[in-house]
C-alpha cells in the first residue's frame, strides 16, 4: 500500500484518543451506553489499546484508542499506529489530541505502518483504515517523509542478488529521473583506479563492477551534499566474516538507501536547496585479486591508508567519496553509513548516533529529531584518539588495534577526508530487529527525517 491520507471530504468515523486519566470523562461525554461498554471491556487507556463502539444496529459507530501515560509515550513512539491498524476499513478522523506534535506523530506513524515488502511474495494487505490528516498538520510533508522512508526500506530489504552495484545504480538513476535531477556515473577499471582508488580496491574482486554515482538537483540555494555508503554486500573480504556475521549484510548499503530516501523527500517537497548526492557502490567479496591485509592504498585525497582489516571497507569507499564531495565547497556535508558494530553496542538499533562539531547544526538536528520522530544521539569526534588512526607506516589505519571506541575512531578517519567545518556523520544500523509500531521488522531509515526537519535551521531556509 502507498502512504496516503483519506480524503478530507470523505464520510469518516471518529477515533477518540484518550489517556488513562481521561477515560472516565470521555465515557461520560460519549454517553451512558459508550461508558458502559468501555467499562465492561476493561478499557484503561493504555498506549495502542483500542475499542470499537457499536451503534444501535450493531455497526461500528466510532472507536476509542488509548494514548497511554507520558512515560509510556516516551518508551514507544508511534504507539497509536497499532490502534489504527485495528480499525475497520474506511476513513477515520482523530479527536482528543490537543498538541499538534501529538497529532503529527499519530498521523506519521499511521502512514509508516502501511509499509509491506512484497517483491518476492504477495504482501498481506495493511489495514484498510486511513486517517484524515489532522488539523494543523502538513499532509504533504508527512506523505513525502513516508514515501522517502518506503524507498529506503525497499532498497535495504532487497537481497544482494537483486541489489548489486548495477541495480543500485538503476534505482539511483530512476530516482533522479522522477525529479528531473542530473546523474553522473563513474565506472570502469581505469577510471576508478585512477580517480577513486579506494573504491576500486574494495570492489575490484567482485564480478559485479564497482562504481561511484553523483546526482545533482536544484538551481539555487545553499548546497547540501549527501554521501551514502553503498556496499551492496559485505563478506568481510579476506578477513572473512563468520556466517552469522553475513546474515544481514544485504543492509550494508543502508547509508546509500537512507540518503536516497532523504533526497526523495527533499526533491518531492521542492526545498530551496542545491542537492548533491554521492554514492559509491561496491561488493566486498573474495577472489584472487581481492584487497589484502597490510596493503597500502593511496586515496583520491592523496592520504595513504594501511589496510589492517579488509572488513573495515566502508570507511575506505566513503573516504574517496568524501574527498570528491570536498572538491566543491558546500554549505553542509553529511555522510551516512552502516559503519561499525561498535555503534550498535553503544546505543542499540533504535538510535542513530551521529558526529558533529558545529553547535548550531547539533541544536537544529536535535530539534529535527523530535519533530520528525526520528531519535538521534550525539557521539564525540574525540581528538585525543586521533593518534590511534595513525599507523606510522602510512597516514591512516583503517582498523586500528586500539580495542576501544570503534565508532569514534571510524568517524575520525572519515573526518580526515571530509575536512569540512560543517560536517555531520551518521553511523546507522538500518534495520529493525523486531516489529514495532510504524516499523515492520527489516530495513529502516534512520536520521533522514531528523535531517529533513532540521535543514531550515541548518541552512537558513
Automatic annotation (TrEMBL):
SUPFAM superfamilies in alphabetical order: Macro domain-like (SSF52949), Zn-dependent exopeptidases (SSF53187)
Pfam (any one): Peptidase_M17
Entry keyword Nucleotide-binding: no
Residues annotated as domain M17 aminopeptidase N-terminal: 31-134
UniProt GO molecular function: manganese ion binding; metalloaminopeptidase activity
Domain annotation Cytosol aminopeptidase: ranges: 151-451
One Gene Ontology biological process: proteolysis
One cellular component term from this protein's GO annotations in UniProt: cytoplasm
Keywords: Aminopeptidase, Hydrolase, Manganese, Protease
Family: Belongs to the peptidase M17 family.
Protein name per its UniProtKB record: Leucyl aminopeptidase family protein
Amino acid at each position: 500500500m502507498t502512504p496516503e491520507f483519506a480524503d478530507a471530504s470523505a464520510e469518516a468515523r471518529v477515533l477518540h484518543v484518550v489517556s488513562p486519566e481521561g477515560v472516565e470523562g470521555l465515557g461520560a461525554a460519549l454517553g451512558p451506553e459508550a461508558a458502559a461498554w468501555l467499562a465492561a471491556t476493561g478499557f484503561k487507556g493504555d498506549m495502542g489499546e483500542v475499542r470499537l463502539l457499536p451503534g444501535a444496529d450493531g455497526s461500528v459507530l466510532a472507536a476509542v484508542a488509548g494514548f497511554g501515560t507520558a512515560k509510556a509515550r516516551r518508551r514507544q513512539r508511534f504507539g497509536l499506529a497499532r490502534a489504527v491498524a485495528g480499525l475497520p476499513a474506511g476513513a477515520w478522523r482523530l479527536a482528543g489530541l490537543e498538541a499538534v506534535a501529538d497529532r503529527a506523530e499519530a498521523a506519521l506513524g499511521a502512514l509508516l505502518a502501511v509499509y509491506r515488502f512484497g517483491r518476492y511474495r504477495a504482501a498481506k494487505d495493511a489495514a484498510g483504515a486511513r486517517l484524515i490528516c489532522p488539523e494543523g498538520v502538513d499532509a504533504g510533508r508527512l506523505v513525502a517523509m513516508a514515501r522517502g522512508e518506503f524507498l529506503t526500506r525497499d532498497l535495504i530489504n532487497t537481497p544482494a542478488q537483486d541489489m548489486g552495484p548495477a541495480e543500485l545504480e538503476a534505482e539511483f538513476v530512476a530516482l533522479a529521473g522522477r525529479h528531473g535531477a542530473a546523474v553522473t556515473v563513474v565506472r570502469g577499471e581505469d577510471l576508478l583506479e585512477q580517480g577513486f582508488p579506494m573504491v576500486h580496491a574494495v570492489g575490484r574482486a567482485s564480478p559485479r563492477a564497482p562504481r561511484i554515482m553523483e546526482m545533482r538537483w536544484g538551481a539555487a540555494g545553499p548546497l547540501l551534499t549527501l554521501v551514502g555508503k553503498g556496499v551492496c554486500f559485505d563478506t568481510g573480504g579476506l578477513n572473512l566474516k563468520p556466517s552469522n556475521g553475513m546474515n544481514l549484510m544485504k543492509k550494508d548499503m543502508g547509508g546509500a538507501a537512507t540518503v536516497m530516501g532523504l533526497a526523495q523527500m527533499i526533491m518531492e517537497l521542492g526545498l530551496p536547496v542545491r542537492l548533491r548526492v554521492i554514492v559509491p557502490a561496491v561488493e566486498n567479496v573474495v577472489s584472487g585479486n581481492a584487497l589484502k591485509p597490510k596493503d597500502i592504498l593511496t586515496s583520491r585525497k592523496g592520504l595513504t591508508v594501511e589496510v589492517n582489516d579488509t572488513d573495515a571497507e566502508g570507511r575506505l569507499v566513503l573516504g574517496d567519496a568524501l574527498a570528491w564531495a570536498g572538491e566543491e565547497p558546500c554549505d553542509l556535508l553529511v555522510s551516512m553509513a552502516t559503519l561499525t558494530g561498535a555503534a550498535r553496542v553503544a546505543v542499540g538499533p533504535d538510535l542513530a548516533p551521529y558526529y558533529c562539531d558545529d553547535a548550531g547544526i547539533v541544536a537544529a538536528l536535535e530539534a529535527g529529531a523530535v519533530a520528525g520522530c526520528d531519535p538521534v544521539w550525539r557521539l564525540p569526534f574525540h581528538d585525543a584518539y586521533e593518534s590511534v588512526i595513525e599507523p606510522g607506516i602510512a597516514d591512516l589505519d583503517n582498523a586500528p588495534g586500539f580495542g576501544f571506541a570503534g565508532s569514534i575512531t571510524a568517524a575520525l578517519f572519515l573526518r580526515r577526508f571530509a575536512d569540512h567545518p560543517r560536517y555531520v556523520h551518521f553511523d546507522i544500523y538500518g534495520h529493525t530487529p523486531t516489529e514495532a509500531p510504524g516499523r515492520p521488522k527489516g530495513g529502516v531509515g534512520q536520521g533522514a527525517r531528523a535531517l529533513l526537519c532540521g535543514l531550515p535551521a541548518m541552512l537558513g531556509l
